[in-house]
Amino acid sequence: MCRQNINEQIYELVIHASNQIRKILDIDDLSYNICVSNMTEPKKYYLHNVLNELDKATYSLMFECKILDDNKNEPPPVERDKSLSSKIWQSRIDGLSLWQRKLVEVLVDLIGFRGANSLKYYKHYNILHEISKKRKEFNDRREFWGCKNKTIEKQIQELENEADQVGRQLDPQNHLKLNNA
Prior knowledge:
Elements: H1 4-25, H2 29-34, H3 42-71, H4 82-114, H5 119-145, H6 150-168
């Protein structure tokens, strides 16, 4: 299914390019997790996030192609295993579809920033992105453990206040249609 040599070269190229850009950005993951709303260079943090998504998609595709290549000469499953085999392959396809969708979202955001290439827009986007992550974490804790985390709730409120302050400084005619919901 996957052409081994060409795909491996593409994966290596993407991973190498991502690493080279990371060196230029000079952001480590610890500062990325701590400084989202307090950053002085929001564009770098935005690009760091884009590279994270690109890396995850590349590794996922690399692993899926390896599995496909490793199983291309396998005999067809016996009747009792067909249902399980079908579910396994469908989960692989679903995983690839997820990364395809995420990469399209990243591409749309990158295109959107062409018209709003300002540090305030990057900062606003990063804050909204962090609010979204915090809300997911808050909801997961509430749904899974049945409890609210007041620290995360407070962080969300602070980020929402900051997003509102930064959002008021943006030009509504040039504003990316970002939703902090």
